[in-house]
Amino acid sequence: MVKSNASNPDQYDRASELKAFDETKAGVKGLVDAGITELPPIFHQPADKIQKYPVLRDTQFSIPVIDLERVKEDPSIRKEIVDKVGNASRKWGFFQVVNHGIPVNVLEEMKDGVRRFYEQDDELKKQYYTFSKPVVYNSNYDLYAGLAVNWRDTFSSFMAPNPPKVEDLPPVCRDIMVEYSKQVQALGYLLLELLSEALGLKRDHLKEMDCAKGLLMLCHYYPACPQPELALGISKHADNDFITVLLQDHIGGLQVLHEDKWIDVPPAPGALVINIGDLLQLISNDAFISVEHRVVANSVGPRVSVACFFSTSVIPNSRLYGPIKELLSEENPPKYRETTVTEYAIYSNGRGLDVDGHSHLLHFRL
Q1: Where in the sequence is the domain holding 185, given as residue range(s)?
Q2: For residue 211, which of 310, 301, 304 has the smallest C-alpha distance?
Q3: Is the distance from CB of 306 to CB of 107 less than 8 angstroms?
């Protein structure tokens, strides 16, 4: 177990504490199950990382909620929805969708499946604590690179275009992982159509660029934290994909950085949170924005969420992505050099979450 030296955080060997925590293979939940009452120093966030920007809870600032009902049946409604999606993607980089076509019982079962995985016996989970399996379970992928360990556990798997064998998925949630990933991919195709139209492109443009070809599912578990004011569930970061579809439970904790203020993204029954990733900002030449966000630690948990990343980062692919030619002009020249999805992912993953506070896109800017 990781010992807590919270009373004197300077008197500890950070490297050995990280190693000891990693070797438990029990994650943050293991610390909670062991009954800790003080936050181990490896989880202490620098104060400026938590407090640099104020949290604004003024109702005039709220993430747009877009109703997708009849988007496929009524052209006039579709045009309204396209306008709303475009406006949200330009101003916020985030929006929520309701009436998106994924049944509520599928959403609930997906969240329940995540809980079942984390609440099963430790020995059953530990077999996934490796990078050599299709399903990878750990606490923080950047455990040794980050400034502080995030207060969460994660298991993940690429579900498209080459999904794992069903028997390689955890028995307690394999069926719902397969079903939910299929439904999310269908929603992803629809969202990319709407985003294409919002950019003034033909409906299938982003889909034909393979923006929805790859799907990575990340299943997060945030236990109640003994000192949530000292920790973060996920540090400030932007996503290195095209778009992300997030399912969050009723507890909340997601915040978006908007005009140098943190804005809560409150859970809404049946809603999914959509955000623009770095790669879509790059190919849209900054028409759409990839916005930094974080998850605060909580004292009531466990909170669960499922983030589905549309990206082909693990698929060998030499395709170059740069600003879309149809969007460029003398007044709007390209702002980024071309890159492959793999190159972008290797660069951003190698730098960890919020290590230097600068957007990874800056590295690719002309």
Answers
A1: 46-364
A2: 310
A3: no
CA distance 185 to 100: 12
CA 146 to chain centre: 17
| Residue 167 placed within a domain | yes
User: Residue 199: which CATH number?
Assistant: 2.60.120.330
What is the CB neighbour count within 10 angstroms for residue 283? 22
Q: Is the pLDDT of residue 7 over 70?
A: no
Among candidate residues 170, 161, 269, the one with its CA nearest the CA of residue 219: 170
94, 263 Cβ separation under 8 angstroms:
no
Task: Judge whether 302 lies within some domain.
Answer: yes
Tokens describing residue 54: 């104020």
Q: Identify the CA nearest to 301 among candidates 23, 96, 31.
A: 31
Number of domains in the chain: 1
What CA–CA distance (Å, rounded) separates 296 from 343? 30
138: β partners: 154
Q: How far apart are CA 312 and CA 304, in angstroms?
A: 25
Centre a 10 Å sphere on the Cβ of residue 343 and count the other Cβ atoms it contains.
14
Structure tokens given for 145: 């690179």
User: Could you tell me if 115 and 155 are in contact, meaning their C-beta atoms sit under 8 angstroms apart?
Assistant: no
Euclidean distance between CA atoms 166 and 285, whole angstroms: 39
Residue 10 pLDDT greater than 60, yes or no = no
Task: Decide if 310 contacts 215 (C-beta within 8 A).
Answer: yes
pLDDT tens digits, 99-127 = 999 999 999 999 999 999 999 999 999 99
Contact status, residue 117 vs residue 125, Cβ threshold 8 Å: yes
